[in-house]
C-alpha cells in the first residue's frame, strides 16, 4: 500500500482515479522555505516534508510526498493566507500565463524517485464579480496561488501545456511509471 503524506484532496483524488490503493496521512509541515527559484523552492519544500515526516514516523515504506507552487515569470505564489492575499494573487493571474510546478518524492523499499514537473495554464481575464465570489467561498484556501483548475479557474483556461495531473498537484503518469503495488 502507498502512503500519501499530504492533506491535499486533489492528490488523493488523482490517486483514486488512477486506481492506486493508498492511505492518506495528514501531517502539518513547516513550509517556510527561503528560495528565489521556483524549481528549487518546490524541491526544497518536498525534501523538507520528507525530513519532517520521517522524524516522526520512521517505520513507513512506500510513502509519497508532494508539493506544488504556482509562479508567474519566476515569482512564486504559495498558498494565500487570507482573502486580501488571494485577491492579489488572482489579479496577478488574470489574463496571463501561469506555471504550476509540482515536486514529488516516492520512497519505496529499494528505491527513491524524485520528480519535478511543470504545467502551464494560459488564462483569460477573470470576471471581477466571479473572482470575489470565489474568494468569499474560501475554496482558494490550501491551494497554491489560490489556483483551482478544476473549479474557479476551469472556465478561464484557454490552453493547458503539460499534464493536467501536474496542474492538480501530482504528475500521476510519472508516479504510475515507477510505483507497482506488488513491489
Automatic annotation (TrEMBL):
The record ties this protein, via InterPro entries, to:
ITPase-like_fam (IPR029001), Maf-like (IPR003697)
Q: Which reactions fall under this protein's catalytic activity? A: a ribonucleoside 5'-triphosphate + H2O = a ribonucleoside 5'-phosphate + diphosphate + H(+); a 2'-deoxyribonucleoside 5'-triphosphate + H2O = a 2'-deoxyribonucleoside 5'-phosphate + diphosphate + H(+)
Say if the entry is tagged with keyword Hydrolase: yes
Q: Which UniProt keywords apply?
A: Cytoplasm, Hydrolase, Nucleotide metabolism
Q: Which residues form the active site?
A: 67
Intracellular or extracellular location(s): Cytoplasm
Q: Name one Pfam family in it.
A: Maf
**Enzyme class, first EC level, given as a word:** hydrolase
Major localization listed first in the record, in broad terms: cytoplasm
Q: What is its EC number?
A: 3.6.1.9
Cofactor(s) needed, names only, are:
a divalent metal cation
Q: What does this protein do?
A: Nucleoside triphosphate pyrophosphatase. May have a dual role in cell division arrest and in preventing the incorporation of modified nucleotides into cellular nucleic acids.
The record ties this protein, via PANTHER family, to: BIFUNCTIONAL DTTP/UTP PYROPHOSPHATASE/METHYLTRANSFERASE PROTEIN-RELATED, BIFUNCTIONAL DTTP_UTP PYROPHOSPHATASE_METHYLTRANSFERASE PROTEIN-RELATED
UniProt protein name: Nucleoside triphosphate pyrophosphatase
**Organism (species):** Campylobacter insulaenigrae
Amino acid at each position: 500500500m502507498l502512503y500519501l503524506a499530504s492533506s491535499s484532496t486533489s492528490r488523493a483524488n488523482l490517486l483514486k482515479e488512477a486506481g492506486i490503493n493508498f492511505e492518506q496521512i495528514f501531517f502539518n509541515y513547516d513550509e517556510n522555505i527561503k528560495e528565489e527559484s521556483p524549481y528549487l523552492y518546490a524541491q526544497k519544500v518536498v525534501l523538507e516534508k520528507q525530513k519532517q515526516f520521517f522524524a516522526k514516523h520512521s517505520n513507513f515504506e512506500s510513502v509519497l510526498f508532494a508539493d506544488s507552487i504556482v509562479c508567474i515569470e519566476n515569482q512564486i505564489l504559495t498558498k494565500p493566507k487570507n482573502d486580501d492575499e488571494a485577491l492579489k494573487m488572482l489579479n496577478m493571474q488574470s489574463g496571463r500565463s501561469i506555471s504550476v510546478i509540482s515536486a514529488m518524492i516516492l520512497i519505496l523499499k529499494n528505491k527513491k524517485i524524485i520528480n519535478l514537473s511543470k504545467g502551464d495554464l494560459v488564462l483569460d481575464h477573470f470576471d471581477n464579480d466571479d473572482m470575489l465570489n470565489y474568494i468569499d467561498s474560501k475554496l482558494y484556501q490550501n491551494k497554491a496561488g489560490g489556483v483551482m483548475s478544476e473549479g474557479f479557474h476551469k472556465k478561464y483556461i484557454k490552453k493547458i501545456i503539460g499534464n493536467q495531473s501536474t496542474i492538480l498537484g501530482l504528475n500521476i503518469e510519472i508516479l504510475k511509471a515507477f510505483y507497482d503495488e506488488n513491489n
